[in-house]
Specification:
Elements (H helix, E strand, L loop, with lengths): L2 H11 L4 H16 L4 H5 L2 H5 L14 H22 L6 H6 L2 H20 L3
Helix pairs in contact: 1-2, 5-7
Length: 122
């Protein structure tokens, strides 16, 4: 992992706008091309990213996997509830197990978002 990629990831986690991320990384690239050791000059990527103001507290566009998985999980929970309300005999142990896929979808969505944000191009 390069310093620039780690910096971009840290900035995105802070909610910094993509244009600002690109500008900051371009500045770091310019210093890197001059032969400067980035870690010594700027500090650790997380520390350098912390110098910039956080973005607005809202769901960012990168979190669409989490949003989609949350909707699918809610639909799953509603479907299980409706099936039980219609009188379909679900054993108690199956009722609890039936909710595991919803939890799995939520976790999967969050993991995909984190990996996606980390692997996005700088």
């Amino acid at each position: 992992m390069t310093y620039q990629r780690d910096l971009a990831f840290a900035l995105r986690l802070r909610g910094v706008a993509e244009k600002d991320v690109a500008d900051i990384v371009a500045e770091v690239d310019a210093h890197a091309q001059e032969g400067i050791v980035l870690e010594e000059f700027f500090g650790a990527p997380d520390e350098y990213a912390a110098r910039f103001p956080e973005g607005p507290k809202r769901l960012r566009d990168a979190a669409w996997w989490t949003k989609v998985s949350a909707v699918v999980a809610v639909v799953w929970i509603v479907a299980v509830t409706v099936v039980a309300a219609l009188g379909v005999d679900l054993p108690v142990r199956f009722g609890v197990i039936a909710l595991w896929p919803a939890l799995g979808l939520m976790v999967l969505g969050m993991v995909v978002d984190i990996v996606w944000a980390h692997r996005r191009p700088v």
